[in-house]
Write a structure and sequence with these properties.
The protein has helices at about 5-10, 10-35, 40-80, 85-115, 120-130, 130-150, 155-160, 165-175, 180-200, 220-245, 250-280, 290-325, 330-345, 345-360, 365-390, 395-415, 420-425. With about 425 residues, it is an all-alpha fold. The protein folds into 2 domains: about 15-220, no CATH class; about 225-435, no CATH class. Helix 3 (about 40-80) packs parallel to helix 11 (about 250-280) and helix 11 (about 250-280) crosses helix 14 (about 345-360).
Length: about 425
């Protein structure tokens, strides 16, 4: 029996293997940048990449999540999606992503440059980031195909294909290429991912059938509301970097290192366990309230326990990295491993954030996310200011943990309360509604 055949019989292991393949290049990229470039050059390159990734993540995640919800509903009702439906989605994605890239990427770079002062002038950062808005547009179009594939049950290929985005860039950095090559390599990698995903979507009969008139494409207004929420949420790491950009050199490298370590673990959990669970949630719509709450309570309890076990395993591994980088006198990376250990405490609450947001979108209450994200941003700004003043740079990851715990508890209350009632068709009392 080949390894491929064995994995095909074990979908859970296949998902984790795909996550490993897809996440490894992006996971290694900040480490490679921290090792190959001086601290000032590494900080500037990571600022440029992270500014674009904020916009790309907002656009791509907004589209993918909306497509999963609506395609999942359509497949549950009519069994297939019309080919013209994907065309409509791709045209809408192009218009949406071009607007997002043109408006938001320069704004993020300007904010970073103003916070950093003379250490990172705006013009060099704009020149270095010139190719990256194209990456946002390509990623948004690819998200239509990945969302449709995930909704149809084919989530292994989209997970593995994520590695195409950053593999070329990671290799160039490892071989000491000039910094300006890295943004170009990211765009080339995104082209490869787009072509692979569209080709796979075209081969699925359930995504290229006759349809049945039950599919409702996400409206631009709905996408804007959802992306406003996601943008507000993604302003949290922007705020974190603004504080760190005014601190000692190497702070951005440390932050990105900790961020990659934490989100490498959380992304593996999200893709390997949460995605297979939440893609079944469209079937809950219209069931009785007690049945829905029993299912959601079981999903939350099981996945939260898994997160706790994974955090207990990941923390000693981060500590081993902390000891190794201290022995090698790699100060910025050493601090990053320390911050990652601290952030592992918030892993179960990050899971609740993800599950709650997906259930909100499934119940077509995306406008709730705007109010939640605004509250999260306010908490983060206050926590960053307080803990950065009291503790210095390590106060930023402390503030992040506090934020994730508070928002995670809020999402848990929503999942088992108003959202369950909405999914069952029960009218939610006015006092239980989220107002934005």
């Amino acid at each position: 029996m080949t390894v491929t055949t064995w994995l095909a019989r074990k979908p859970g292991l296949s998902a984790f293997a795909a996550v490993g393949v897809g996440s490894l290049p992006g996971f290694l990229l900040p480490f490679a940048i921290g090792l190959r470039y001086p601290a000032s050059v590494g900080d500037e390159l990571l600022l440029v990449i992270s500014a674009n990734l904020v916009v790309t993540q907002v656009a791509a995640s907004t589209l993918e999540t909306a497509v999963i919800a609506e395609v999942g509903r359509a497949l549950t009702v009519q069994g297939s999606l019309g080919r013209q439906d994907l065309r409509v989605l791709r045209r809408r994605a192009l218009l949406y992503a071009c607007s997002a890239a043109a408006l938001l990427t320069p704004a993020c770079l300007l904010a970073y440059s103003l916070a950093a002062g003379d250490s990172h002038p705006l013009l060099p950062m704009l020149l270095l980031s010139a190719p990256l808005p194209a990456m946002t547009v390509l990623a948004a179009r690819a998200s239509v195909s990945t969302g449709a594939l995930i909704a149809s049950g084919d989530y292994i290929a989209p997970l593995a294909a994520q590695g195409l985005r950053t593999s070329a860039a990671a290799c160039l950095v490892a071989f000491g290429a000039p910094a300006w090559w890295v943004p170009l390599a990211l765009c080339i990698g995104e082209v490869g991912r787009l072509l692979a995903m569209e080709h796979r979507a075209q081969r699925r009969s359930d995504l290229n059938g006759a349809g049945g008139g039950h599919f409702r494409a996400p409206t631009l207004g709905g996408l804007v509301a959802q992306s406003a929420s996601m943008l507000t949420s993604n302003l949290n790491p922007v705020v974190d970097r603004l504080f760190l950009a005014s601190g000692p050199a190497g702070g951005i490298v440390s932050y990105e290192t900790a961020d990659r370590l934490f989100f490498g673990v959380s992304h593996a959990l999200n893709s390997g366990t949460i995605l297979p669970v939440v893609r079944r949630w469209p079937r809950l719509i219209g069931q009785d309230l007690m049945s829905i709450r029993r299912t959601l309570r079981g999903d939350v309890r099981g996945l939260a326990l898994l997160c706790c076990v994974v955090a207990l395993v990941a923390t000693p591994l981060c500590y081993a990295g902390f000891l190794g980088t201290r022995r090698l006198e790699l100060d910025a990376l050493n601090t990053g491993f320390l911050w990652a250990m601290l952030q592992m405490v918030s892993l179960p609450f990050t899971l609740l954030n993800t599950m709650g947001a997906r259930l909100i979108i499934l119940t077509r209450r995306a406008h709730w996310l705007v109010g939640i994200a605004g509250a999260a941003l306010a908490i983060n700004v206050i926590a960053d200011a307080v803990f950065f003043r009291l503790l210095g740079p390590i106060g930023i990851p402390v503030a992040t943990v506090v934020l994730r715990v508070l928002i995670g508890l809020g999402f848990a209350a929503l999942i088992l309360g108003p959202l369950s009632a909405i999914a069952s068709g029960v009218r939610v009392p006015a006092r239980s509604r989220v107002r934005t």
